[in-house]
From TrEMBL:
GO molecular function: ATP binding; corrinoid adenosyltransferase activity
Organism name: Eiseniibacteriota bacterium
Protein name: Cob(I)yrinic acid a,c-diamide adenosyltransferase
Pfam families with a match to the protein in the record: CobA_CobO_BtuR
Keywords of the record: Transferase
Annotated InterPro entries: CblAdoTrfase_CobA, P-loop_NTPase
GO biological process: one example: cobalamin biosynthetic process
Annotated signal sequence range: none
Length: 194
C-alpha cells in the first residue's frame, strides 16, 4: 500500500476524514440544466464522499428501472440507495396518482434521513423535476434543505431547478447541452444513459 501524506487529510490505510462533523458546514449543491450528466455528477460525488469515509444516502425520484450505477453503489459499504419511481413517462400537466404517491414516499424517506442524522451526504436525484412538476410542494423541499443537520451535504439534481432552490443553494451547476447523440439517431444504451 502506498503511503498517503497526512496533509492530504487521510492517514495511511484509512479513509476517515480528519475534519469532524462538529466543524464541517454542509453544502447545498444544485445540479440542473438541459444537458447530460446531472445524475452522473451526483453519483460521482457519492463515490468521492465514500472514498473519504463518509456515509451516503441516495434517493432517486421518477426512475424505476435498473441503472448500472445503482447496482454498483448498492454493493459498496456506507451507502444506502432507494428508488421511488416507475419505468414510465410522467406527464407534468397530468401526473399519474401513482407518480405523486411515489414522490411523496421519496420525500418522506428524505425527511427520515435528515432527521436521523446518520448520513454525511444526501443525494436527491431528480428532485428538481419532482418540484417543477408539482409532485411534491416546493416549499417542503426548501424546508427539508434548511432542516438538515449542519454537517450534511445535500445534492439536488434534475432539470428546471426552481428559482427558490437555486437561491438557497451554496453552489449551482448548470449542465448545458451543446450536442447530443440522440439527435444523430443513437438511442439510449446501457453504460451511457443507464
Amino acid at each position: 500500500m502506498s503511503e498517503i501524506a497526512a496533509s492530504d487529510g487521510i492517514t495511511e490505510g484509512s479513509a476517515v476524514p480528519t475534519e469532524g462533523r462538529e466543524t464541517r458546514k454542509g453544502i447545498l449543491l444544485v445540479i440542473t440544466g438541459n444537458g447530460k450528466g446531472k445524475s452522473t455528477s451526483g453519483f460521482g460525488s457519492a463515490l468521492r464522499a465514500l472514498g473519504h469515509g463518509f456515509r451516503v444516502a441516495v434517493i432517486q425520484f421518477m426512475k424505476g428501472r435498473i441503472y448500472g450505477e445503482l447496482d454498483v453503489l448498492r454493493s459498496l459499504p456506507r451507502i444506502d440507495v432507494w428508488q421511488f419511481g416507475r419505468n414510465a413517462f410522467v406527464d407534468p400537466k397530468n401526473p399519474d396518482p401513482k407518480d405523486v404517491e411515489l414522490a411523496r414516499k421519496g420525500l418522506d424517506k428524505a425527511w427520515e434521513i435528515v432527521r436521523g442524522g446518520e448520513h454525511d451526504l444526501l443525494i436527491l436525484d431528480e428532485i428538481n423535476v419532482v418540484a417543477d412538476f408539482g409532485l411534491v410542494p416546493l416549499e417542503e423541499v426548501l424546508e427539508l434543505a434548511r432542516s438538515r443537520p449542519r454537517w450534511m451535504d445535500l445534492i439536488a439534481t434534475g432539470r428546471n431547478a426552481p428559482a427558490a432552490l437555486v437561491e438557497l443553494a451554496d453552489t449551482v451547476s448548470d449542465v448545458r447541452e451543446i450536442k447530443h447523440h440522440y439527435k444523430k439517431g443513437i438511442e439510449s444504451r446501457a453504460g451511457m444513459e443507464y
